[in-house]
């Protein structure tokens, strides 16, 4: 009987940053990655819409894919905030790992204790994010910046728009540097944003830390698997998209060095 894969989904191609970390942590596991690009971006949608999409995708990965998934990684901050608690209630036997902006690691590594957070409007407005922020009250000052349009620009590999938006949003956060009152750490609170890291590094002073959540999510996924794969088998990856398959194929090759066909799914 073939080993069951780990399901990973995002509103688009951004979750490939998490898949990259998962492949490093769990090289012998098979993965099925679903980009819900036909309904992106999630960060500018209402919560009910995101919950409905998360339920539909999870149902597909559990019932339409063969073999069905053994665990689920929600590689999207907005979908995690909106839907992970509901999915865990509805599917108590399925290990589900979500993502959240890496505020705690940022607090641990910041010296000025002034931290920028780039995220979607949906993530910043969520109860889950507000709870996370409240837990860290007094430990650091967070400057939270909604980044409308940035995930979509990354989704479509629109380089000029990525540069323009990153410039606008980093300026809005304020002064970066290593003196008192300056931002020395920037949290990338959307799984798309690590793919703009090179642009951000060009805009910011050398030494400013960029923190994303790929590696912690991969480690947590290993912890929740009842029997992580080992041995000689090299994990395989299946790619699915509800949008333009070419976008996901190009992104997978560009960012993961992965050449694989993409199966188009109806919404």
Automatic annotation (TrEMBL):
Listed EC numbers: 5.1.1.3
Top-level enzyme category: isomerase
Catalytic activity, reaction form: L-glutamate = D-glutamate
Record: residues binding substrate: 10-11, 42-43, 77-78, 191-192
Pathway it works in: Cell wall biogenesis; peptidoglycan biosynthesis
Gene3D superfamilies associated with the record: 3.40.50.1860
InterPro entries named in the record: Asp/Glu/hydantoin_racemase (IPR015942), Asp/Glu_race (IPR001920), Asp/Glu_racemase_AS_1 (IPR018187), Glu_race (IPR004391)
GO biological process: one example: cell wall organization
Active site (catalytic residues): 76, 190
Signal sequence segment: none
Keywords assigned by UniProt, alphabetized: Cell shape, Cell wall biogenesis/degradation, Isomerase, Peptidoglycan synthesis
Superkingdom: Bacteria
MF terms (GO), sorted A to Z: glutamate racemase activity
PROSITE patterns: ASP_GLU_RACEMASE_1 (PS00923)
Function, in words: Provides the (R)-glutamate required for cell wall biosynthesis.
Family under the similarity heading: Belongs to the aspartate/glutamate racemases family.
PANTHER family in UniProt: GLUTAMATE RACEMASE
Stated name of the protein: Glutamate racemase
């Amino acid at each position: 009987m073939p080993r069951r894969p780990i399901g990973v989904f995002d509103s688009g191609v951004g979750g490939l940053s998490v898949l990259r970390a998962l492949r490093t942590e769990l090289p012998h596991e098979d993965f099925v990655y679903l980009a819900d690009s036909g309904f992106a971006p999630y960060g500018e949608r209402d919560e009910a819409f995101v919950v409905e999409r998360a339920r539909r995708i999870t149902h597909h990965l559990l019932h339409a894919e063969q073999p069905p998934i053994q665990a689920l990684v929600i590689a999207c901050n907005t979908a995690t905030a909106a839907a992970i608690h509901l999915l865990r209630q509805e599917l108590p036997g399925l290990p589900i790992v979500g993502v959240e902006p890496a505020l705690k690691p940022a607090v641990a590594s910041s010296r000025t204790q002034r931290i920028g957070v780039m995220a979607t409007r949906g993530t910043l407005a969520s109860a889950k994010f507000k709870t996370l922020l409240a837990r860290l009250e007094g430990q650091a000052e967070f400057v939270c910046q909604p980044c409308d349009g940035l995930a979509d620009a990354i989704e479509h590999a629109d380089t000029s728009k990525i540069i323009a938006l990153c410039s606008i949003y980093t300026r809005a956060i304020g002064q970066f540097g290593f003196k008192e009152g300056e931002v020395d750490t920037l949290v990338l609170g959307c799984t798309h944003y690590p793919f703009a890291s090179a642009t951000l590094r060009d805009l910011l002073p050398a030494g400013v830390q960029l923190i994303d959540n790929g590696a912690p999510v991969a480690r947590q996924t290993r912890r929740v698997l009842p029997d992580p794969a080992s041995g000689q088998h090299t994990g395989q990856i299946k790619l699915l998209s509800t949008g333009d398959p070419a976008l996901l194929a190009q992104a997978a090759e560009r960012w993961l060095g992965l050449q694989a066909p993409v199966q188009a799914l109806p919404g």
